[in-house]
Write a structure and sequence with these properties.
- Helices cover 25% and strands 31% of the residues.
- The protein contains twelve helices and 19 strands.
- Strands 10, 11, 12, 13, 16 and 17 form a six-stranded antiparallel β-sheet that branches. The protein has a five-stranded mixed β-sheet with strand order 1-6-5-3-2. Strands 9-19-18-14-15 form a five-stranded mixed β-sheet.
- It is elongated.
């Protein structure tokens, strides 16, 4: 697979990231903001249009990856970023293809390297091509072989010469949902880690196409630690369990030592073929700040993955601290930190190229 042109491979300048407390938000915002100069040069997309797209997508990125950019002739370019090294296919979430208000004319594959700050646009396909691609039921995406993509540097020239052909395939409309059903669905999805896969696509598409509902759904998956401390008998959701139900008696004894007022809960995280236990211990300090400790332990009768890494991210997506497993480690943990109630942060777990994030509010 070859790069398009020098203009499509850019080095990102440092830019503020608004509310990027999840990996997906960070990757998408880097993609859209980093490509702004190139979009202006090649397609005449203004800085104001990019800023508007960033604002409108803030409630979307925690749920679905991708960004829509309007072009001057009324067509739409959909940017699909990926931090994966493999360029063998373009994988487009179904939302960008089968929601009528979201569908685009052109879909660009963008390689994002957050650590080095590099972007590479390595090809594009039309909506009609994507609709004929392989549909993957497991993650509700359309998969198109990388060899079928066209160099995106060709598109501005073809548009200028009027050589573009029909780009869109027909798609059915989505149902109008009554208010009672909407409220029930939103409530149901609050306990689901991956809400976009939890209900039939027609229902999900009808929910997410509404910006107001997206804002409600974007909070799905955020764990409120203050509730653990203040609501006695709180029913745990989103996969969280007590330590005693997750660990063996020996592991429970070896886990965090804490005061009697501390709350200790855990959650199984699956990263590819590996499973680890994320433990979080919280207690209230004398100044009303919340003391937080985070640890990773192996699942019952297993070992920690060799390449395990645990990081704390700030609300702006910056890495505050990171710990990497050493060969002798039976567990790894972050240094204890204290936050005021209501402060957001993210815990990131990485094994090789597999990454998971858990979002929290203190």
């Amino acid at each position: 697979m070859t790069l398009l042109s020098a203009a499509s491979h850019v080095l990102l300048e440092a830019a503020p990231i608004v509310a990027a407390n999840r990996w997906a938000v960070r990757v998408n915002q880097l993609c859209l903001q980093g490509l702004a100069p190139w979009l202006a040069d090649e397609f005449g997309v203004t800085a104001g249009q990019v800023a508007a797209a960033v604002r409108s997508h803030q409630s979307l990125w925690p749920l679905v990856t991708g960004s829509a950019v309007p072009l001057s002739d009324g067509t739409r370019l959909i940017l699909i970023p990926s931090a994966a090294i493999d360029h063998s296919e373009l994988r487009v979430p179904q939302e960008w293809v089968d929601i009528p208000a979201w569908a685009g004319d052109y879909y660009a594959a963008v390689r994002v390297e957050p650590d080095s700050g590099q972007l590479c646009v390595w090809g594009y396909a039309t909506h009609a091509q994507i609709k004929q691609a392989n549909y993957q039921e497991g993650d509700r995406s359309y998969s198109l072989d990388g060899e079928a993509l066209t160099d995106l540097a060709v598109l501005p020239v073809a548009r200028a010469l009027g050589l573009t052909t029909a780009t869109r395939a027909p798609i059915p409309s989505l149902p109008d949902l009554p208010t009672e059903q909407v409220d029930a669905l939103v409530q149901r999805l609050r306990d689901v880690q991956v809400p976009r896969l939890a209900v039939p696509f027609e229902l999900w598409g009808a929910l997410i196409q509404d910006e107001g509902l997206r804002s409600r759904l974007a909070t799905v998956g955020t764990t409120n630690l203050s509730q653990w401390l203040t609501q006695a008998g709180l029913q745990l959701t989103q996969g969280w369990q007590t330590l005693e139900s997750l660990l063996s008696p020996r592991q429970t004894t070896m886990a965090f030592r804490s005061s009697e007022t501390a709350v200790r809960n855990g959650k199984r995280l699956r990263l590819g073929s590996d499973t680890v236990i994320l433990l979080v211990v919280v207690e209230t300090e004398a100044d009303d700040r919340i003391s937080i400790r985070v640890q990773l332990r192996p699942d019952v009768e297993s070992d920690l993955p060799e390449t395990l890494e645990l990081s704390l991210l700030s609300p702006t997506g910056e890495t505050v601290q990171t710990v990497t497993r050493l060969p002798q480690d039976e567990s790894i943990q972050l240094k204890r930190f204290r936050l005021p109630p209501g402060y957001d942060f993210t815990v990131q777990v990485r094994v090789g190229t597999a990454t998971l994030q858990e979002s929290f509010t203190a």
